[in-house]
Amino acid sequence: xxxxxxxxxxxxxxxxxxxxxxxxxxxxxxGYVAFFTLSFEFxxxxxxxxxPNISYGKFFKLLYPSxxxxxxxxxxxxxxxxxxxxxxxxxxxxPFNRCFSLGGTIFNPTFSEAQCPVDNSIPPxxxxxxxxxxxxxxxx
Length: 140
Description:
Blueprint: H1 5-16, E1 21-28, E2 34-42, E3 45-50, E4 59-65, E5 69-78, E6 84-92, E7 97-104, E8 109-114
Parallel strand pairs: 1-7
Antiparallel strand pairs: 1-4, 2-3, 2-5, 5-6, 7-8
């Protein structure tokens, strides 16, 4: 899984608040490099997030607050000269937890809902004997 510092901070903040998080995962099974954008409304502000470039066989999971509204997800691919091409756009007023797969080629890219991959980024349960009292910080 690809991640970045911003996602780790968001993930840590949601866990420390014991607040559930929504997520969207894009799996790239297409013959191109892709990225996606997710915008949503949270606490009266519009938040916009962009994934890093996702190469063939990779995926990216983006977390967002479970109380977010007006989600807009767009996926794009790069063509041979580096220009971007819109693959799909979906929107939802309510938050969702879904995974999508990109496929095809740069000439005919596809977008479909997919089974979510196993997420190995969840830290193991902390035993009562450990001195660490936080739920995630010991494993960063």
